[in-house]
């Protein structure tokens, strides 16, 4: 547990993929500008989240049950007292709490407000989440990832559009690095390009059938490319057989170890949204194509993808079960590296490289708030 003699911070977020990872960049900046700062991350306990935060040298605590069995924490009864969160804050005695969104970010933020602690809130999506709406009246600072979000929010504190803080991707040495090695297979020779597909929304996903066939249509634009296709575990064998039958150089897998490192070395990333959040993928600086089904709800991930599309930072395919839709969207990206570079550049402009520094500087400013009495 972090110590009383230091300037302690708690960063909380979870129940949605990738929310807590934006805090890594903020913590790095705070550590640079505040001597003896220590950080505790409170999250949902997913293996990838825990691995990345601990690898960065920060402490991590998981809340409640494993993610697959946990119900949404936002439905807790108001008289429950947020006891687990209050106990965490009393033990760690933070100078400030940073809520990064999701159910865990909301519950820890509520406990911080009840204790009178300085509270900063980061809204990473284009649409204001329920957690941010509830915490904004209690916060000392609200940071937004998108300019258009400001119109949707009512707050009693300073509201700044900083962009989304992004931690640099974890890179590995170049020796033996291939998509096959990242997927847990034997290393192979280096190739000229890598296409990563993240189709994670359960068995029977239309993407698993339509996308490989579309890539077969475009095979003349894929000389030397290697395809890594992550899908639900029950679909791995059928997807691998389909690629083999189509004559495409691909590996299908249910898990990719160190996904950020693989993405950072990829020429193009295709992901289903939801559940994958394009803002989380943006840290890899690879061009992104988001697949959104027509009946998908307008959740924060979908709203963010559409906002990035409007700024030229993302391509959206609204009919992921249609082979021709994929062929039309991917043909210019695979034929010429120019459009891929334009997508990556637009994403970097949208997310702003100084977002973490801005938020860290403003958090330091609010540390002069009256000290909390840990009742």
Please summarize what this structure is:
With 375 residues, this protein is an alpha/beta fold. It is built from 14 helices and 13 strands. The radius of gyration is 21 Å and the shape is elongated.
- Distance between the first and last residues' Cα: 19 Å
Rg computed from alpha carbons, rounded to a whole number of angstroms: 21 Å
Please tell me the CATH architecture of the largest domain by its name. Answer: 3-Layer(aba) Sandwich
The fold-level CATH name of the largest domain is: Rossmann fold
Largest sheet: 7 strands, parallel
Q: What is the count of DSSP helices, taking H or I runs of 4+ residues?
A: 14
Strand order of the largest sheet: 3-2-1-4-5-6-7
Q: Average the pLDDT over all residues and give the rounded result.
A: 81
Our estimate of the beta-strand percent is 15-25%
Shape: elongated
Give the count of structural domains: 2
CATH class of the largest domain: Alpha Beta
Sheet/helix structural class? alpha/beta
Protein described:
The chain has 375 residues and is an alpha/beta fold. It has two domains: 7-166 and 353-368, Rossmann fold, CATH 3.40.50; 179-351, Glycogen Phosphorylase B (Rossmann fold), CATH 3.40.50.2000. The chain is built from 14 helices and 13 strands. It has helices at 22-33, 47-55, 83-92, 102-114, 130-135, 179-182, 206-217, 236-246, 259-264, 278-281, 300-310, 323-335, 337-351, 355-365; strands at residues 7-14, 37-43, 59-62, 96-101, 119-123, 141-144, 158-161, 193-199, 225-231, 250-253, 268-272, 288-291, 315-317. The strands form two sheets. The chain has a seven-stranded parallel sheet with strand order 3-2-1-4-5-6-7, sandwiched between helices. Strands 10-9-8-11-12-13 form a six-stranded parallel sheet, sandwiched between helices. Strand 12 (288-291), helix 11 (300-310) and strand 13 form a beta-alpha-beta unit. Helix 1 (22-33) crosses helix 14. The chain starts with 6 loop residues before the first strand and ends in a 10-residue tail after the last helix.
């Amino acid at each position: 547990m972090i110590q009383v003699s230091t300037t302690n911070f708690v960063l909380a977020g979870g129940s949605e993929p990738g929310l807590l990872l934006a805090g890594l960049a903020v913590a790095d900046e705070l550590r640079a500008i505040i001597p003896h700062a220590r950080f505790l991350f409170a999250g949902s306990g997913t293996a990838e989240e825990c691995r990345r935060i601990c690898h960065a040298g920060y402490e991590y605590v998981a809340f409640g049950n494993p993610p697959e069995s946990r119900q949404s924490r936002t439905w807790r009864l108001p008289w429950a007292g947020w006891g687990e969160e209050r106990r965490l804050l009393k033990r760690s005695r933070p100078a400030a709490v940073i809520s990064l969104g999701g159910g865990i970010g909301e519950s820890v933020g509520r406990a911080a407000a009840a204790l009178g602690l300085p509270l900063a809130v980061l809204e990473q999506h284009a649409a204001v989440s329920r957690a941010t709406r509830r915490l904004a009246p209690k916060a000392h600072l609200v940071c937004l990832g998108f300019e258009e979000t400001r119109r949707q929010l009512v707050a009693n504190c300073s509201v700044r559009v900083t962009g989304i803080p992004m931690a640099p991707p974890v890179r590995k040495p170049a020796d033996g690095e291939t998509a096959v090695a990242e997927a847990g297979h034997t290393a192979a020779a280096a190739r000229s390009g890598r296409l990563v597909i993240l189709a994670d929304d359960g068995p029977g996903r239309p993407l698993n059938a339509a996308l490989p066939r579309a890539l077969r249509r475009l095979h003349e634009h894929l000389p030397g490319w290697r395809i890594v296709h992550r899908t639900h575990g029950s679909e791995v064998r059928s997807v691998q057989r389909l690629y083999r039958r189509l004559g495409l150089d691909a590996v299908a897998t249910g898990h990719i170890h160190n996904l950020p490192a693989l993405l950072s070395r990829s020429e193009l990333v295709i992901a289903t949204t939801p559940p994958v959040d394009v803002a989380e993928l943006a840290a890899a600086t690879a061009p992104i194509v988001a697949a959104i089904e027509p009946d998908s709800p307008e959740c924060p991930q979908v709203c963010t993808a559409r906002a990035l599309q409007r700024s030229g930072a993302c391509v959206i395919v609204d009919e992921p079960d249609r082979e021709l839709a994929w062929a039309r969207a991917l043909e210019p990206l695979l034929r010429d590296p120019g459009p891929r570079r334009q997508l990556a550049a637009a994403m970097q402009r949208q997310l702003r490289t100084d977002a973490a520094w801005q938020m860290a500087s403003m958090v330091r400013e609010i540390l002069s708030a009256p000290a909390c009495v840990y009742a």
